[in-house]
Amino acid sequence: MREINAQQITEVVKKLCIDANLYLGEDVLAAFDRGEKMEESPVGKEVFQQLQENARIAREEKVAMCQDTGLAVVFVELGQDVHIVGGDFNTAVNEGVRQGYQEGYLRKSACHCFTRANTKDNTPAIIHLEMVPGDKVKITVAPKGGGSENMSMVNMLSPSEGIEGLKKRVVEWVKEAGSNPCPPVVVGVGIGGTFEQAALIAKKALLRPLGQKNPDPHLAAMEEDLLTRINNLGIGPQGLGGRITAMAVHVLMIPCHIASFPMAVNINCHAHRHKEAVI
Amino acid sequence: MSAAIRLKTPLSDADVEKLKAGDKVLLSGVIYTGRDAAHKRLYDLLLEGKPLPIDIKGQVIYYVGPAPAKPGQVIGSAGPTTSGRMDAFSPKLIEMGLKGMIGKGMRKKEVVEAMKKYKAVYFAATGGAGALLAKAIKKAQVVAYEDLGPEAISRLEVENFPVIVVNDTKGNDLYEEGMRKYAR
User: Fold this and answer.
1) Residue A6 sits in which domain range?
2) CA A141, CA A149: separation in Å to the nearest integer?
3) What's the total number of domains in chain B?
4) Residues A78, A177: one domain?
5) How many C-beta atoms surround the C-beta of residue A128 within 10 A?
6) B109–chain A Cβ distance below 8 A for any pair
7) Looking at CA atoms only, how far is residue A156 from chain B in angstroms?
8) Statement to judge: residues A152 and A165 lie in one domain
9) CA A264, CA A266: separation in Å to the nearest integer?
10) Residue-wise pLDDT tens for chain A (279 aa)?
11) What pTM, to 2 d.p., does this model score?
């Protein structure tokens, strides 16, 4: 059994919250470069240039790249040979979020559903905990903005709709989302499992770095086809018309019930924020 | 693409009537922030026939909830939020004399109709470019609803704040036009 102090979890979560909001990933910067070159619309090109400039300012001045610094979504892979000591795990994660959003000058966006009163420290974090073999803890913080998260959906399809039916639903959904989720977006698609599992893997699919191919050749081909169809919609950067509506489509799939064909879509805005660390 | 039109707030009917969907505009002068919770409060005051905390005649409202300012900063990151959530409140504000809205994302038919009827425009700023857009904000001061935190109404002084006209006073829509042009 390896002991890890709760304080260390807090420190790591705090740093990841700040880093994810200030420093745009290299994979996303590279996708901006590609997009800026490929985009045919002059306005669309200009949007890519603004996003590149925005990322530079955020990085150099150490400020949030977007005012919507999101709800703190925290994925944790906890090694089964790890023993957390010196405090409870959930409190440690939430304390990291509290400190990160305070010290990083990040916006606190969590509120009561009815009164809309702000919780003032961006907690509670959304924690997804998974137990894995080994004696390490992998923590990924993926701050999720409201604009893109609002453009999410779960569909319990009939198996008779087939792969083509599923693809049509994804493309129609991205079309309906239009300019709202801050295109050029990254589209996460979760297929299979149950209602809640489909939604969770749609979000998990977004964690894969841009430009990294899906290891499943069938899904890789599906991603390419979906990306082409989505980009043929013409929505373009910021919805102002153009070639690049999505920078990537990421699909994750798991088996489902013989009666079901669940499918979920979770869209990331162009910032595609996530940072990870292994303790 | 044509050069940007420079406009100074407050805006008149004549100012907004000459704008067309797709025009790039650099806004200077005073604009006010306001998003979900502030809109709800303004709307409720109007329904009760009470005065608003700000005079919105000729003004521009920017749908933004800024990030906190670091020491030495005027304002934290300040990009637009999704405008659709303000659709329920906007027609009434436009009727009261609001001339411009800045946000991102599509507006409902009722808002587009109100813009035509009462002469107002909807501008888009680049969503997610909050660090860049904050550079065009030279002064920021909370003027109402301080208790709402990031949702309070602030008076902003902006210089050459970059926006693009999405909906003009003739009913044109850049989102629809742009998509039509590039769809395959």
Assistant:
1) 2-20+65-144
2) 15
3) 1
4) no
5) 15
6) no
7) 27
8) yes
9) 7
10) 999 999 999 999 999 999 999 999 999 999 999 999 999 999 999 999 999 999 999 999 999 999 999 999 999 999 999 999 999 999 999 999 999 999 999 999 999 999 888 999 999 999 999 999 999 999 999 999 999 999 999 999 999 999 999 999 999 999 999 999 999 999 999 999 999 999 999 999 999 999 999 999 999 999 999 999 999 999 999 999 999 999 999 999 999 999 999 999 999 999 999 999 999
11) 0.95
